[in-house]
From TrEMBL:
Belongs to the zinc-containing alcohol dehydrogenase family. The keyword S-adenosyl-L-methionine does not apply. Pfam families: ADH_N (PF08240), ADH_zinc_N (PF00107). This is L-iditol 2-dehydrogenase. Keywords: Metal-binding, Oxidoreductase, Zinc. The keyword Magnesium does not apply. It comes from Pseudogracilibacillus auburnensis.
Amino acid sequence: MKKAVYYDVDNFKYEDIGELTIGSKEVLLKMESCGLCGTDIHKAISKSVPTPIVLGHEVAGTIVEVGAEVSDYQVGDRVYLAHHVPCFSCKHCRRGHYSLCPQFTATNIDPGGFSEYIRVPELHVKHTMGLIPDDISFEEGAMVEPIACCLHGFDLIHYYQGDNVLIMGAGQIGILQTQIAKHLFADQVIVSDINPYRLDKALELGADHVIKADKENVKERVNEITNGRGVDIVIISSGIGFLLEQAMECVSRGGTILVFAPFKKEPITIPAHRFFEDEVSIVGSYSSTPYDYKPALELLKKGVIQVDKMVTHRFPLSELKEAIQLAHDTEKEVLKVMIEPKGN
């Protein structure tokens, strides 16, 4: 049994897991597919987490052992999994901000998603694990968590049927948001990015218009598409500070900006008068909640999210470093990378 352990930038070691002993309310999972998330890439490239650590949290797998007190699952079940669990009772949870709960980031799967086998603690078994239907693949099951993150963001904004949406960033999250927005409410979905391959993917998966942000003026193109009105909703899905300034230029009166990507802790100048004069709102969204997993699974069951068109590369667990290097290269034709225990 192996795991891919992150020690430093470009330094991963393929190591033995050692013995994983489960408690009476836990399960042991064989990882079948684990998605490579943008946060995994950021952590590995910038070394923003304590090391050594096993990254990975977009997990789908097969249960190989169940604790004596586990009654809802059995050996052989195919399940999806998420990595954080709120307490459901603190101030933040009572206000519906589950991802801000102090317990949320204190919980995790053991040792992490990029491991052949994973111990699933009691709270995760109870709140963040669910059965994958027979007609849903493991790769699709591994997408439940990132789809849930997107749904959490949409839950925090006010949208109306026929709204126009600008999504800044055509990475894996931006492409998910494109498909969800088009399904839920959007009249026109506009996607901006600098990568032509990803912009083509955006068009393939539901975008009505794309803007190559390094060659075109985003504000001018948005005004052209919307007849000068601007967009009702802007979703920032790339952690680049000036995109907030750009979003303020593109959002219409009464519109909303959803900040879905982490910015560096540095000042950003925006026209504050618009909050009062135009009733513009800015909302932030972090991670997912346990209430978003089943709706995410439903989107997969209905074929709203086309995972097969999003996955561009698959790597064995032993080549996690190479997978991250590829995914981080903005000039490569890569969108969603999946990690498998042994690879095909």
